[in-house]
Design brief:
heterodimer, A: 110 residues, mainly beta, six-stranded mixed sheet, five-stranded antiparallel sheet, 55% strand, globular, B: 115 residues, seven-stranded mixed sheet, 0% helix
Chain lengths: 110, 115
């Protein structure tokens, strides 16, 4: 089946720093989604990407659909303490259901 | 607008008991998904419905698990009998499956503990 690898698995950064994380697939994906999950809550949709090369922003967040259609990137600029959480990528390939990555745990220090 | 609603938020039960989890999707959405999340396995899709019809239940662990969607605004996930290894957070998500949309919106989850 389709697999998604996210990296890094976790990261500790200082407030104000920029953050980059990525997600790679073993096969071509047609849709990429990025979610954030806070403790005790469900994942919240941040950004959706539908076209190879597409670059989409949501406030301080920017995500890109890789040209090869096998990867996606999420950047967070000027991180703040409320950015703490687990970020998941998800995508659809030949199947119509979403495959989720393993998550990147982000911790922000003051 | 109300998001996806799940109940209960927490459930503690003894091994062998029946457990029923409930979900109300976002009004107007035509697809509903049940997921299970554990530290070891991450987010796993159990089953999904489109227009109240089960489309793919290949993720359902075994016959002890069953799910129903009697109408567009309600779904249940039942475990009978429950076992300690079923302990996890169960999420319901819904989406409007148009031509290009795969965006799923999640509920707050039900944390199940089976002792």
């Amino acid at each position: 089946g389709q697999q998604l690898n996210q990296s890094p698995q976790s990261m500790f950064i200082q407030e104000g720093e920029d953050v980059s994380m990525n997600c790679t697939s073993s096969s071509i994906f047609n849709t990429w989604l990025w979610y954030k999950q806070d403790p005790g809550e469900g994942p919240v949709l941040l950004i959706a990407l539908y076209k190879a090369g597409e670059l989409t922003s949501n406030g301080r967040l920017t995500a890109q659909f890789g040209i090869t259609r096998k990867d996606s990137f999420l950047n967070i600029s000027a991180s703040i303490p409320s950015d703490v959480g687990i970020y998941f990528c998800a995508g659809t390939g030949t199947a119509s259901k979403l495959t989720f990555g393993t998550g990147t745990r982000l911790q922000v220090t003051l | 607008d109300a998001g996806v609603i799940q109940s209960p938020r927490h459930e503690v039960t003894e091994m062998g008991q029946e457990v029923t989890l409930r979900c109300k999707p976002i009004s107007g959405h035509n697809s509903l998904f049940w997921y299970r999340q554990t530290m070891m396995r991450g987010l796993e899709l159990l089953i999904y419905f489109n227009n109240n019809v089960p489309i793919d239940d290949s993720g359902m662990p075994e016959d002890r698990f069953s799910a129903k969607m009697p109408n567009a605004s309600f779904s249940t996930l039942k475990i009978q009998p429950s076992e300690p290894r079923d302990s996890a957070v169960y999420f319901c998500a819904s989406s409007f499956r148009g031509l290009f949309s795969y965006e799923q919106y999640f509920g707050p989850g039900t944390r199940l503990t089976v002792t």
